[in-house]
Amino acid sequence: MERNWIGVLCLSLMIMTGCGDKKTGNEVLRTVNVAEAVSTDGGEAVSFPATTRAAEEVNVSFRVSGPLTKVTVNEGDYVRKGQVLAVMDPRDYQLQLAATQAEYDRIKGDAERVIAMYKEGTTTAQNYDQARYGLQQMTQKLANHRNQLADTRLVSPVAGYVKEKLHEAGETVSAGMPIVTVSSGDRIEVEINVSASDYARLGQLTDFRCSIYALGGDSMPLERIRTSAVANATQLYTVRFAIKGNYNRKLLTPGMSALVKALSAKGSSTDVTIPSSAIMNKDGHTTVFIFSEQSKKVTRKDVEVKAMLLDGTAQVTGLKAGEKVVTTGVRHLIDGQRVEPMKATSETNIGGML
Question: What are the pLDDT digits (tens) for 97-154?
């Protein structure tokens, strides 16, 4: 029985030493996967993740402050131009208007008497001007307070769909605070965000086309219409496209995921593609580890990512076609470390057991 346990222990040790890191003498070599950098050849299509957007989005807000008593729409609802979206408690504005109306009636009566006296020649021109200007000022004040009362009802300035409802009944909101976002218009646009390097070469990209996953991936031609001149907080530039030709507006809605592809009219021979798992950010640098067949060591090298592609690869500069990069465990490697590349799996010897 004791011999059986010893045999099992020995077999277990043999299996454990055959997996993971490989020991050579006193040095343990980490086993890694490597892949070759592939040249883009200057004419390969580039891809960008995209999202469909409404051609116009409006954040609708009150022009006055107060507590909300009702929000009459929900996300996804279709609204007409002029339709009531929300209602604010009008109490304070009703009292304000009533006081202003009473003050207006008094000043109007006084002004009419002074104007009549001036026409009869029984008062001075100065009194006439004061009465007339005072009535004009009070008329404007009354109109302003009437508008404020009317503004306690929030109406949609456009026809479209409610994209987002930002507040609920019972909340107190300030003037200018968005209550509802409405996506207006019948046109849908496509939006991508590109890096600084892609932004610089937009003029070299042609034949933009879009595939919408939810609609079966059919390719639709695009026309570039707007490009932001300033990068956002993530150092990306926004590019908007109009969809050329006819499409089903009922099926194509804002917020759908898409893929925009373009052809490089003047590609760069320095561009290569590598698995995105080979890339890491360290000490503020974007780097990869290059594997040398001769020394069996890895060397850290900085690269610039030009595009992250949906097939799991990235288009980068700073590498040469044919160089081998480490694609697994890169965060555990150090510059100059010796490693052992994992052998390719044989179709007839899966798992390397033979």
Answer: 999 999 999 999 999 999 999 998 899 999 999 999 999 999 999 999 999 999 999 9
Per-residue pLDDT tens for 199-237?
Answer: 887 887 888 888 887 777 677 899 999 999 898 888 899
Q: What's the whole-number mean pLDDT along residues 73-86?
A: 92
Residue written as tokens 């980068």? Answer: 316
DSSP collapsed to 3 states, the chain: CHHHHHHHHHHHHHHHHCCCCEEECCEEEEEECEEECEECCCCCEEEEEEEEEEEEEEEEECCCCEEEEEECCCCCCEECCCCEEEEECCHHHHHHHHHHHHHHHHHHHHHHHHHHHHHHCCCCHHHHHHHHHHHHHHHHHHHHHHHHHHCCEEECCCCEEEEEECCCCCCEECCCCEEEEEEEEEEEEEEEEECHHHHHCHHHEEEEEEEEHHHCCCEEEEEEEEECCCCCCCCCEEEEEEECCCCCCCCCCCCCEEEEEEEECCCCCCCEEEEHHHCEEECCEEEEEEECCCCCEEEEEECEEEEECCCCEEEEECCCCCCEEECCCHHHCCCCCEEEECCCCECCECCCCC
- 138: left (phi > 0), else alpha (psi -120 to 50), else beta? alpha
CB distance 180 to 85 below 8 Å: yes
Distance separating alpha carbons of residues 138 and 314, to the nearest angstrom: 68
The CA radius of gyration of the chain, in Å to the nearest whole number, is: 35
Average pLDDT over residues 270-274: 81
What is the pLDDT at residue 269? 57
pTM over 0.85: no
Picking from 54, 58, 57, 59, the residue whose alpha carbon sits closest to that of residue 179 is 59
Contact between 212 and 252 under an 8 Å Cβ cutoff? The reply is: yes
Handedness of CA 215, 217, 218, 219 (dihedral sign): positive
